[in-house]
Design goal:
The chain is rod-shaped and about 150 Å long. Strands 14-15-17-24-21-22-20 form a 7-stranded mixed beta sheet, with no helix packed on it. A 7-stranded mixed beta sheet has the order 27-28-29-31-36-33-34, with no helix packed on it. A 7-stranded mixed beta sheet has the order 50-51-56-53-54-52-55. The protein is mainly beta. It has 5 domains: 23-234, Jelly Rolls, CATH 2.60.120.290; 285-427, Spermadhesin, CUB domain (Jelly Rolls); 430-670, Spermadhesin, CUB domain (Jelly Rolls, Sandwich); 676-856, Jelly Rolls, CATH 2.60.120; 865-982, no CATH class. β28 (446-455) and β29 (458-467) form a beta hairpin.
């Protein structure tokens, strides 16, 4: 066991003359004496080398044989009476280990200088010292004069004198590697106390700079080798920085993206020197106390490493990153009492644990000590990655003024010091990965404003503003485009955040009219967490695919990245937004607002999470080129009720020792809807969601909904939108400009040989895998009629002179049928977009339609076709002609006749002609039916628009007679039929 030891960092004010000497005077005396001894030895030696001792007999022995207690010369001239190993200069040959020791306890006061010089070439370039025994003076913890009885100091020729000292007692070997060719070991003993043993023994070796490799025989039969060298391999040298003139270890590093830069402790890989400031003398005790306080407070300030990246590629932003993952390269002194290695796990000592007796590294987020402090590190098994926000970083190394050559016990290697790896991280200058000085950047289709506020040396806040582009810009891109201006993914800042930093992300959608909130009764349909905005603006939708925060200092780990397996049975529910810590303040706090934040009027809190994760959609992180998990839905995240959403993440300990990582997906949802809400009369199939039933009375351009939350990519499974285009007293002229129904439509649009109208002919109904889970009974007749339901997305167009009654005009289901022009016979058309099984990867860009409509004049002789063709009971006889202008009843063209019974009566219809067989579903495109004309009489069930009969008209002969269903006791609704006179010739 080693007793407590220390290094004294102030010049002791000695009473004896020996203690009053200044280091420079001691250097001069030592060098002069060493030169005289060396010259005398060389003169007497004749043929002996500089690394040998010349015996009187002319024989040559090793230089360390002098006064080692054993006679190596035959005449005993290497062991003269009262000899001493002190005040001598020692040379040697490369690769040979030498030893020197003070064998007997000296009398106080005692001063001993041992100078070791590498002579170059075969005599080496650097000096390696291994302290095998060290018992010098004593250490008084907490005292300003920590080494009152004596200490050891190290100094190198040509380098500033550090003045730090080692004292106390320690066992084992500790290594020291010089930076220059000459190093002097000075041992001073001022007084000897009873019971204090003195011992000082070391080994030294001279190394070639190209072979600066540690190879130390630590114990008998044991050799430790440092795999690597201080300067790197010959073919790949390390960049150790340029030494600032007049300093001991302050260095400047530049352009570390081209070369491997390493921050090495002084004299790495050996123990590093101690540092001190000069002691103060004062005439009055008040001034003395002031100066002593200033000295104690500032005595640790020593070395600075300035990292700078000047060469930055165009459109890139540079950040400096420093780290060290290997524990054997992080041998920084922690404290006297914490020197033991009896521990488990990887630990990090930082901030409050960096007391006055510990060495430390301080990382500044910039080139000056006035910049924010990223972390204050004072020991551990590794150094977590520390990254600056810009192209400059300042690293300060402060060593405590007192220590001993501490080292781990065997079998650990006796290496000391640290080496840090430097990387240059480049990010896109227009990315959201970093916060910089106040700037405004334009990024493709959206704008980001980034603001960093610095106050009193601390980065108080970083702000990111993400502004949406218009949805038209996204629509003009290709269907396979990324839509970058409307959605994206962002992560926590790639750089380290100082303590007490709050980063905010504000998402600015395109504003619209004053919002009007709908009833939340249909939230289960669209799976919305918050009310939906019915205005000409955007909503903001965000969700997290991962969120992790944990402490590297605390023994416990907070891992909050929840997993959610696909399938539903094992899925975990999101944590509540009211999570609170058991005690104390939050280390990491996340807050989300529907609005501009805590200080904005009208902002509504969506969640606050204290050391906990928000709602997660972890399955989104599983997506790759071959895996497409179920899409995330609004309950997995957050949806605003206005075009503004903000979130703030606060890190109180800083992210260097408490990492915060998350992946957030955001999207600006276009909530604009055409026209006004269409009232529900109870006759029309309901829209899903209900807001998708629209009533358009003003001619112009229109489009299907662009709300991504209503489609598969937003978590929805089915969709039905109804658009009613109504022109009172006129006809509706519709131009369908474009329509798409998925990336791979499984349907074609073709004319029906039976009716002459466009119908949808889907592929065979053997369902694709994505359709296999559609078992909802509500989908049996999702199209709203009794025909065979279409599983593919499609658009139906209906003639609807009266609300609640309509007949199909066309059905479109492929991506090549537009443009298409249609004109109603009456005053209204209805368009119904239906998708029974939305594809998970598709949205409003893949299933959509766009068009324009205008008012067309009605026939001058028959302006009220809808009124004229609604035939009241008890009945009448109608004679139809073509051209339609042949009589008044035919002038309304293909506007349907409405035959509606009243009370408990039924409708009876007789049509002269031949009934044609139905082809068994929409889309029949077989051989033309046996009919002499292309004219048709089409009979539909009025409530469902289901085709009942197709008649080939004739003036006499056979007749078709038809009753409505309630006549046969099958119908539950009043009897009604729609009859269309579709004439072509």
């Amino acid at each position: 066991m080693s007793r407590a030891v220390s290094v004294h960092g102030a010049v002791l004010q000695e009473a004896a003359g020996e203690r009053a000497r200044r280091p420079r005077a001691m250097w001069r005396a030592a060098l002069a004496l060493a030169a005289l001894v060396a010259l005398g030895a060389r003169g007497a030696a004749g043929g002996c080398g500089v690394a040998e001792f010349a015996c009187r007999s002319g024989a040559c022995v090793r230089l360390d044989a002098y006064c080692d207690g054993e006679a190596q010369c035959a005449d005993g001239s290497d062991e003269p009476a009262h000899c001493s190993v002190c005040n001598r200069t020692y040379y040697g040959r490369v690769g040979v280990a030498y030893a020197v020791a003070v064998r007997s306890a000296p009398r106080a006061p005692f001063l001993c200088h041992l100078t070791f010089t590498a002579g170059g070439g075969a005599h080496g370039d650097l000096v390696q010292l291994a302290f095998d025994e060290f018992r010098v003076g004593r250490y008084e913890p907490g005292a300003l004069d920590g080494c009152p009885d004596g200490y050891m100091q190290l100094s190198e020729l040509g380098r500033p004198f550090t003045g730090g000292s080692w004292c106390g007692e320690a066992d084992g070997a500790a290594l020291y590697y010089s930076e220059t060719a000459t190093v002097t070991v000075s041992v001073k003993l001022f007084r000897a106390r009873l019971g204090e043993n003195f011992g000082f023994r070391l080994r030294y070796k001279f190394l070639a700079q190209r072979d600066a490799v540690v190879s130390v025989p630590y114990e008998a039969g044991t050799t430790y080798r440092w795999n690597g060298c201080r300067f790197g391999a010959m073919e790949a040298p390390l960049e150790r920085g340029a030494v600032s003139p007049g300093t001991y270890c302050t260095r400047t590093y530049e352009e570390c993206h081209r070369k491997p830069c390493r921050l090495q402790s002084p004299n790495y890989p050996g123990m590093y020197p101690r540092y001190r400031l000069p002691a103060w003398r004062a005439a009055s005790w008040v001034l003395a106390l002031i100066l002593m306080f200033r000295t104690y407070r500032n005595r640790n300030v020593t070395c600075y490493w300035s990292l700078r990246q000047k060469d930055i590629p165009t459109c890139k932003h540079a950040m400096i990153s420093v780290r060290q993952e290997h524990s054997h390269k992080m041998q920084i002194k922690r404290s006297i009492s914490m020197a033991s290695l009896n521990k488990t796990g990887r630990v990090v000592r930082a901030w409050r644990e960096c007391t006055g007796e510990r060495d430390r590294l301080i990382f500044y987020d910039g080139a000056s000590t006035d910049d924010p402090v990223l972390v204050e590190y004072c020991g551990g098994d590794w150094l977590p990655r520390v990254t600056s926000r810009g192209p400059e970083m300042l690293v300060a190394f402060h060593s405590s003024p007192f220590s001993a050559p501490l080292r781990p016990p065997a079998p650990a290697a006796p290496l000391r010091g640290f080496e840090l790896d430097v990387d240059v991280v480049f990010a896109d200058s227009d990315s959201l990965d970093y916060a910089s000085s106040k700037s405004r950047l334009s990024i493709h289709y959206f704008t980001i404003t980034i603001l960093w506020i610095i106050d009193d040396r601390e980065a108080r806040r970083c702000e990111f503003h993400v502004k949406a582009s218009s949805s038209e810009e996204e629509t003009n891109t290709t269907i396979a485009g990324s839509g970058r201006g409307r959605r994206g993914k962002l992560r926590a800042p790639a750089h380290t955040l100082p303590p007490n930093t709050t980063c905010t992300w504000t998402f600015h959608g395109r504003p619209g009219n004053a919002p009007r909130l709908h009833s939340p009764a249909t939230c289960s349909d669209v799976r919305m967490r918050s009310p939906l905005l019915l205005s000409a603006g955007d909503l903001v939708w965000i969700y997290f695919s991962s969120f992790t925060q944990y402490s590297l200092v605390e023994p416990r780990r907070i891992e909050s990245a929840e997993r959610e397996e696909e399938g539903g049975a094992g899925a975990t529910r999101p944590r509540s937004g009211r999570a609170r810590p058991a005690a104390g303040a939050c280390a990491v706090e996340l807050r989300i607002w529907d609005g501009g934040g805590a200080d904005e009027a009208g902002a509504r809190a969506l969640g606050r999470y204290c050391d906990a994760a928000p709602a997660l959609c972890a399955r989104a992180a599983l997506a790759n080129a071959t895996r497409a998990p179920r899409p995330c839905a609004p309950p997995d995240g957050y949806v605003s009720a206005a075009p503004l959403l903000s979130l703030a993440a606060t890190s109180r300990p800083g992210t260097a020792t408490h990492p915060l990582e998350f992946a957030l997906h955001y999207e600006f949802v276009d909530a604009r809807l055409e026209g006004a809400p269409l009232p529900d009369d109870g006759r029309r199939p309901r829209a899903l969601p209900s807001e998708c039933a629209r009533w358009l009375t003003t001619p112009g351009a229109f489009a299907s909904p662009r709300n991504a939350l209503w489609f598969g990519r937003g978590g929805a499974r089915r969709l039905r939108c109804v658009y009613r285009l109504e022109a009172a007293g006129a006809r509706v002229a519709l131009d369908l400009v474009s329509a798409t129904f998925g990336r791979e439509p499984r349907c074609v649009t073709r004319p029906d040989a039976l009716t002459g109208r466009l119908v949808c002919a889907p592929d065979p109904l053997d369902a694709r895998p994505e359709d296999a889970d559609v078992v909802d009974e509500g989908l049996v007749d999702f199209d709203g009629d009794d025909d065979t339901p279409l599983r593919v997305p499609h658009l139906r167009i209906y003639e609807s002179p009266w609300p609640g009654y309509r007949v199909p005009v066309a059905c479109i289901c492929d991506n090549s049928s537009a443009p298409l022009r249609l004109e109603s016979g009456g005053g209204a058309l209805e368009l119904e977009l239906v998708a029974r099984a939305l594809a998970p990867a598709e949205d409003h860009r893949h299933v959509q339609f766009r068009g324009t409509w205008a008012r067309a004049p009605a026939p001058a002789s028959s302006p009220a076709c809808a009124t004229r063709r609604r035939l009241p009971p008890p009945g009448t006889r109608v004679h139809l002609l073509y051209p339609y202008s042949g009589n008044r009843m035919s002038e309304c063209g293909e506007t349907p006749f409405l035959l509606e019974a009243r009370g408990n009566r039924s409708v009876f219809l007789r049509v002269w002609g031949e009934e044609l067989p139905l082809t068994g579903g929409a889309g029949g495109a077989g051989e033309p039916p046996p009919c002499a004309t292309t004219n048709r009489v089409l009979v539909y069930e009025a409530h469902s628009a289901r085709l009942l009969r197709v008649v080939c008209p004739a003036t006499g002969g056979r007749a078709l007679q038809l009753f409505t269903d309630e006549w046969w006791g099958r119908g539950a609704r009043p009897g009604a039929l729609l009859v269309v006179w579709a004439a072509r010739e």
